[in-house]
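Quick one, tokens below:
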């Protein structure tokens, strides 16, 4: 009888202990770090390449789960704020964020840091205030100046040009716009006839805006600089529809299949290209290193380049024009 009671007591102890073991913090010693990667939007090729790079870093590091979530369109700041707040509620281990509005995301980032969740900003900057881990991005001002130089080359350093802006509050594109205008100061025979119009966050709105601009300036226009992928895609469509796609020189920022093809047929005279795969890769590596106690540089540059009809088939241009395919 004593052995029977002793055995039952042991069995009862195991039953009572089981839920404690199952729910304890050390239940799964292989639990991954959960890193939320939040782009400005999810529909353009650029962000798909960033996602590829982020996942590449996670795979290399091991035991890292990427939670990829963002608004569909890049102007939806409210949705992006909601995504950040949801990640805070989920208690992710770190957040990698490309703010689609430099001021609008400040409070959400402050909240994340206040909850003990570190933040790396990538692609586009944030207004000063939050103590972020690092900023991983292209030198967009330099990229804008490179666009100005390529424009000057394409139009023979003289003529009327248009700067097509993006949406207000996007730090990355504002830096490109500023760099382009400053860069053109080296070419006194180039006149900027319009620099206050915005293409918006999609190809359709950009095309419609360029249609209007061509009605006003098309007869005497030498070139257009479009500061991001959707703006450049819309500009290309408008120029082709108007029969001006080889007369008016297009300089783009960020590639797409249509723009890469346009380099081949003379409808685009240059594309300033970033390294979105490297951007996603470095941002994830940096946040994981920070979680593990390493100090990061305040700014990590991922480089900027210009693809032209002359160099587009060279290895470096091909790698960046089609990053998610060739990486």
């Amino acid at each position: 009888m004593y052995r029977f009671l002793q055995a039952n007591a042991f069995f009862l102890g195991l039953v009572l202990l089981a839920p404690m073991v199952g729910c304890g913090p050390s239940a799964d010693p292989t639990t991954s770090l959960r890193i939320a990667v939040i782009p400005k939007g999810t529909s353009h090729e650029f962000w798909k390449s960033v996602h590829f790079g982020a996942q590449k870093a996670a795979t290399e590091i091991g035991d890292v789960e990427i939670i990829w979530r963002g608004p569909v369109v890049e102007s939806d700041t409210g949705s992006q704020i909601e995504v950040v707040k949801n990640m805070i509620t989920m208690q992710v281990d770190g957040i990698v964020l490309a703010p689609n509005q430099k001021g609008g995301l400040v409070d959400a980032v402050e909240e994340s840091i206040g909850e003990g969740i570190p933040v790396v900003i990538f692609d586009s900057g944030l207004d000063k205030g939050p103590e972020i881990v690092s900023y991983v991005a292209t030198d967009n001002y330099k990229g804008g100046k490179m666009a100005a130089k390529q424009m000057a080359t394409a139009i023979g350093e003289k003529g009327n040009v248009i700067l097509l802006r993006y949406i207000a509050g996007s730090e990355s594109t504002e830096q490109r716009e500023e760099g382009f205008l400053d860069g053109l100061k080296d070419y006194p025979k180039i006149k900027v006839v319009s620099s206050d119009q915005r293409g918006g966050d999609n190809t359709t709105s950009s095309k419609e805006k360029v249609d209007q601009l061509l009605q006003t300036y098309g007869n005497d226009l030498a070139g257009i600089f479009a500061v991001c992928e959707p703006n450049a895609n819309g500009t290309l469509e408008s120029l082709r529809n108007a029969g001006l796609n080889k007369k008016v020189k297009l300089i783009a920022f960020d590639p797409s299949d249509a723009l890469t093809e346009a380099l081949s047929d003379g409808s685009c005279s240059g594309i300033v290209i970033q390294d979105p795969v490297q951007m996603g890769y470095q941002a994830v590596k940096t946040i994981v290193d920070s979680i593990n106690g390493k100090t990061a540089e305040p700014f990590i540059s991922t480089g900027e380049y210009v693809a032209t009809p002359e160099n587009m088939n060279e290895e470096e241009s091909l790698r960046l024009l089609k990053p998610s395919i060739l990486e």
